[in-house]
Amino acid sequence: MKNQQHVQELSSEKTEFKREIGVFGGVSIIGGIMIGSGIFYLGSYVLQRTNYNIGLALLAWILGGVISLFAGLCYAELGAAMPKAGGRTVYLTEAYHPCVGFLAGFCDWLIGGPGSVAALAIALPTALKPVTGINDAGIKVFAIVLIVGLTVYNCYGVKLASILQNISMVAKLIPILLIMVVALFCGKVTPDISIGQQVATSGTTGTISMVAFAIVASLWAYEGWTNLNSVAEEVKNPKKDLPLAIIIAIGGITILYTLFNYAIYRVLPYETVVSMIEQGDFYLGTEVAKLIFGNVGSILVTTAMVIAMFGSINGLILAQPRTYYAMAVEGHFFKSFAKLHPKYKVPTAPLVVQAIISIILVLMRDLDQLTTLVVFSTMLFNCLTVLAVPILRKKMPEMPRPYKVWFYPVSVIIIVLIYIGLVISTFLDDPTSAIIGFIVPAIGIVFYLYFDKKKRQEGNRI
């Protein structure tokens, strides 16, 4: 009886939030965060890791998308069953222990969320530097104004934030699609996508290892699909809209990334591509735009990059504070974080604190080093979240699951193994960053013990 009551409580769609996000809004949140300036240069890293084999590079993009899609489907099952603000912090709490969910949220709160916001806020005016001539001090001022402005805007409700996200999503896709479509149909190069010669040279095992290494690079371009789950309580019909938005967004972006990179090879001769990368010029997409549209091409690329980063910042500011809110509601974080604005129904305190931390990170010098601290632990928590699917199916078999991940359990096993491989690969490639990556969760344990003790003391008084 107690278990049934718990299941009903978790599955309830009653919420203090305003349900303002539809399917397109969900797609815009995911796509707005995922599609950034990396679309113009990350293809170079993928190609480089496949020993400049175009066929294997395109395969890596497709497989990277498929991996992200199936991991996203695991989040879709969890999100549809437990449509709660906070996303994976809720799932990790239910599957393992409140401490595990707290640590995932704590890493996002201290470094992950604010670090990403700060990095993008700095990158946006930096992209305008050739046009505006803005200096380093001006870039930081611009970044701070941007963070403050978008935070204040998000404080006026999720509907306004979602509308801005929808507009920025469409606005950045226009120049990207224009460049891609014209390149596909007007390009005169027929790229060699055969992989036989590479397999003969490297062997089957060597080729698989090469593709796996390239997939890791492509996965960074797919980062961001987890954020919709953080605002599940603000999705109009989370049991239906959340899985649908995840499938459309990740599936559509996989097609976009693959076709965009193929379009590059339709315009740039193979020798030019190799020469550019070897000389350290990774912006193949930018070069394609310049060749097709001349000076207008540079404007198109700059416009797309600026809008893409703007949309990513807004999406992160919209989604991340809901995680901190969920931690507070669970009873293991600052009480003020558990309060919603009486009129606009947004977690105002988490929004403001995230902005303050982001501004502090903007003012610090080694921003890149700070943001890498959480990369290792993020992969660990994603792996644990995917593994939460079979754990919760066994632990809570009576929980209503309006959506279930495809090809279970094979798909879940494969995704978990891939994440384990990525964790091991990261540890071997950069053990220092991996070890330092544990510092933030270690600090988080101290915070958890403090809040847990406080929670128990308050419970005893009652």
UniProtKB/TrEMBL annotation:
The chain crosses the membrane at residues 21-42, 54-78, 99-125, 137-158, 170-190, 202-222, 242-265, 292-317, 344-364, 370-393, 405-428, 434-451. Signal peptide: none annotated. The keyword Transmembrane applies. It comes from Intestinibacter bartlettii. It comes from the Bacteria. It is a multi-pass membrane protein. Keywords: Membrane, Transmembrane, Transmembrane helix. It is found in: Membrane. Pfam families: AA_permease_2. The keyword Transmembrane applies. InterPro entries: AA/rel_permease1, AminoAcid_Transporter. This is Amino acid permease.
